[in-house]
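User: Okay, second chain of the day. Same drill as before: sequence in, structure tokens out.
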Amino acid sequence: MEPISPLEQALHAARALVLADLVAGQAAEADVVSLVEDSVVQRRWWVQQWPDGAEYVAGLIAQDVQDALLDRYGRWPLCPVCGHGDPHALDVEPELGPDPHWVCHKAGVKVAAIGSLGSCAGGPSAS
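Assistant: Same drill. Structure tokens below.
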């Protein structure tokens, strides 16, 4: 058996992190998981073109899934920090960089690293 390439390791890790956040938000339905897989396929090509971008794929896949969910189902993940006002989604920061986090721009705080939404009280979900 051949070893898994660093590119594939990065893609598998990114997939696992985004799936963990979807599970935490009880949004990991089959059709949503398919959105993750679609993003992984697209980002595989992207990172093959720019191998130095491998450390960025988790944030990019999270953003891809967030955008696809917004188009089909609504905002995800909802902010678990703000208990008042209109429900709003968290954003990924940095948009293109290592160590991506979910952040609430209204409260101005980092909420959780990508893959760690389950550690947030209440666990955000799709709206």
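Residues 6-119 form one domain.

User: Thanks, on to the next one.
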